[in-house]
Amino acid sequence: MALRLSCILSFEQSSSQGSFVDFVKVFFLWEKVIMKVLVESPAILDPSELLRPEPEFMDKSASKFRDYTIDKNDPLKERVRQTYRQMHLNQTVDFVKGRRAEWLTFTKFRATIREALERLNDLVDESDPDLDLPNIVHAFQTAERAREEHPDLDWLHLTGLIHDLGKVMAFYGEPQWAVVGDTFPVGCLWSDNIVYRSDSFEGNPDGDNPQYNTKYGMYEPNCGIRNLLMSWGHDEYLYQFLVHNKSTLPEQALCMIRFHSFYPWHSSGDYQHLMKPEDEEIKKWVLCFNRYDLYTKSTKMPDIDALWPYYQSLIDKYCPGVLEW
Predict the structure, then answer these.
(1) Would you say 24 and 285 are in contact if contact means Cβ atoms under 8 Å apart?
(2) What are the φ/ψ torsions at residue 177 (nearest 5 degrees)?
(3) Cα–Cα distance between 132 and 299 in angstroms, integer?
(4) Model's pTM, two decimal places?
(5) What is the pLDDT of residues 12-68, one digit of tens each?
(6) CB–CB of 209/189 below 8 Å?
(7) Whole-angstrom Cα distance, residue 10 to residue 13?
(8) Are 318 and 155 spatial neighbours (Cβ–Cβ below 8 Å)?
């Protein structure tokens, strides 16, 4: 039978952040129970259903999300594949270090959070097989679903709204393959669960470098997820931007933002050999956020103009004023 997430979401919600922490703990207690049953009686559960919400949570079948099958006659699928091809060819240790040196001076432009968000009206993510709409639509979809489930956790609502805001780099000279899409560590063996892994990295020079092409590569065992040099993109940039501008969002929010696109780790279970024990807690927060990020993608349009006053109040609370980008 397919076990849905509703068994976990029956946990009573209240207005405090502490209750959300308890929600996360209950979520992963259930996950351990489920995985034990799965190991002992594999025919009982479909593991692909584990983190999927109930049908009413979505606007299409869960199996239709993150469809990276190859169809050269499908323009959307081919656009996605080619974006990842360029990413996997060019994202090297040297490239990432160069982009960090370029962007983490935070001297590109100055703008408020709202001004930057409104730029996303003009951005369609070329790596996304699930949505072909401006990215600001997805921002409000994510935020509103988080708000629906946890109405009093305003920091979570704002996290949903801004989690992709690092994509503004695309308006300042960065190609989309260095902005969007799933992330992965550079400087070590690429995971088998990276999308298009079978041939997409052909020609990447790090694959021929013995310093980088082994299981641990340039890292020490159990060095910790925070110490990995991730492929350059919007996740890491926005995390560093929020730290630089002294945002008061809680640590959970920063982790959700920094690692939400690291699918080979949080959803495929790879890179365990590089984790510290405390990284399991980070993964819990990221997986909980993933439900709002992934499964809200649809063509249903939120009333953005009507929602702005509420979200402006959150921006003023956690990330106020004109900021350095």
Answers:
(1) yes
(2) -65, -15
(3) 9
(4) 0.80
(5) 343 445 555 565 555 555 444 433 433 343 333 333 333 434 444 445 444 445 677
(6) no
(7) 9
(8) yes
